[in-house]
Design a protein that fits this description.
The chain is of the alpha+beta class. It is built from 7 helices and 10 strands.
């Protein structure tokens, strides 16, 4: 009949211990993550090349090392509210191309050329390599680059030199053609490699059956000789020291008409190709007069 209280009490020691263990584990994990991040930053800081890390989705600048701060405008961008890594590129849309390149290369981007902004805002060419990564818990891109402006300038100068050389060569060849055309002789130039006729003076064109050099078909010098062995003889003799090789032999024109010719031939380089250049004169009348025609 006395007033009293009644209660039950479960043993929660294990639950409290589990919660404490979980809290300890979370703290340990957080410390481990912080330690890993510190180690990663220390590692990136020690890299003797510019390194930049940016959020993949928004392009937010997450990290850059000292080299990147010195060579690009990344430090200024990081101090500007709302600025992203797009401002690193001379053409802001290039960042999207870089992100797409990562995706198409299975998280590994092959070195790609971009124009990026220097610390003073001047664009320069860089060869950028990068990867995808998780940085402090979020998807990110990490990139490094080398300045290739000097190489690009050298390539541009080399292309310009090649173009200048090509134009100069064309001018020289045009003058050479003009000079040869002014000579009142039958002149033929043929490649030593395959005998292809590279040039014929106006006086020699009837041999090929044409009146204009522009109409000259692909013809080969060996076909002008009735004896195919003559061409081999010419190549052998003109390769010897001593200058000009002279001979008399039978030739034939495009119609197949044969005639006796007096040839003077030497080796040369024509339009960059090892060649032979020769003149010939029809001596059929003289040979007939001497009774020496075949």
């Amino acid at each position: 009949g006395q007033a009293a209280v009644i209660g039950v009490f479960p043993d929660i020691t294990e639950r409290r211990e589990a919660e404490a263990a979980r809290q300890n584990t979370e703290q340990e994990l957080r410390k481990s993550i912080e330690h890993n991040h510190a180690q990663l930053k220390n590692l990136l800081d020690s890299v003797p090349a510019p390194v930049i890390v940016a959020s993949k989705l928004e392009g937010k600048i997450l990290y850059f090392n000292q080299q990147a701060g010195l060579l690009t405008n990344i430090r200024k961008l990081s101090e500007t509210a709302g600025a992203t890594s797009e401002g690193l590129f001379a053409n802001p849309t290039e960042r999207e191309r870089l992100v797409q390149t990562f995706g198409s290369m299975a998280h590994v981007a092959a070195p790609t050329e971009f124009q990026i902004n220097a610390a003073d805002g001047t664009p320069f060419w860089a060869l950028l390599s990068g990867n995808e990564m998780i940085y402090e818990g979020e998807p990110a891109t990490i990139g490094t680059f080398i300045d290739i402006s000097g190489r690009r300038e050298a390539e541009k100068a080399a292309r310009q030199s090649e173009e200048d050389l090509h134009r100069a060569t064309e001018l020289i060849n045009a003058r050479l053609h003009s000079l040869l055309d002014s000579v009142p002789a039958k002149i033929v130039v043929a490649s030593r490699k395959d005998g292809r006729v590279l040039y014929m003076s106006s006086a020699a064109l009837p041999l090929a059956g044409v009146a204009d050099l522009q109409e000259l078909p692909v013809v080969h010098a060996p076909g002008f000789f009735t004896d195919p062995g003559i061409w081999k003889l010419i190549l052998a003799e003109t390769s010897k020291p001593g200058g000009t090789y002279m001979l008399e032999c039978q030739m034939k024109d495009a119609s197949g008409k044969e005639f006796w010719a007096d040839l003077s031939i030497c080796q040369t380089v024509f339009e960059g190709q090892p060649s032979v250049i020769g003149t010939f004169a029809d001596i059929t009348g003289r040979r007939e007069a001497e009774g020496g025609h075949a």
